[in-house]
Amino acid sequence: xxxxxxxxxxxxxxxVVSIAEWEALMARLEExxxxxxxxxxxxxxxxxxxMLPAGxxxxxxxxxxxxxxxxxxxxxxxRALAAEIGISSAAVSKxxxxxxxPSVATLGKLAVALGCDxxxxx
Length: 122
Known about the structure:
This protein is mainly α. It is built from six helices and two strands, in the order ββαααααα. It has helices at 19-46, 54-61, 66-73, 78-85, 89-96, 104-114, and strands at residues 4-8, 11-16. The protein has a two-stranded antiparallel sheet. β1 (4-8) and β2 form a beta hairpin. The chain is rod-shaped, with a radius of gyration of 26 Å. The model has no long low-confidence stretch (mean pLDDT 90).
């Protein structure tokens, strides 16, 4: 690596490197940051934190009904989810379309069946 220092008031104040060397340094820093972020994410997953796919997050951000998004993400049909928690598929459909609101007990059952927090469904 060819490094040049420029002194100011008798002390090294600036370092000059070629653009290629600068880009290589930046790439190494980014790689280190990416590696650290990947390690953090893996630790979170091992600790039980779930990472959601970008498509699912985009659906939630766009305002799509969270129950429907989670149900489809977990691979449940309306009928299967309804059977899992002991309500009719029509009741689940009404919740998903906003025509009715679940009781706290039903919301809790939905959250357990879908493996998420109740807050994730509201």
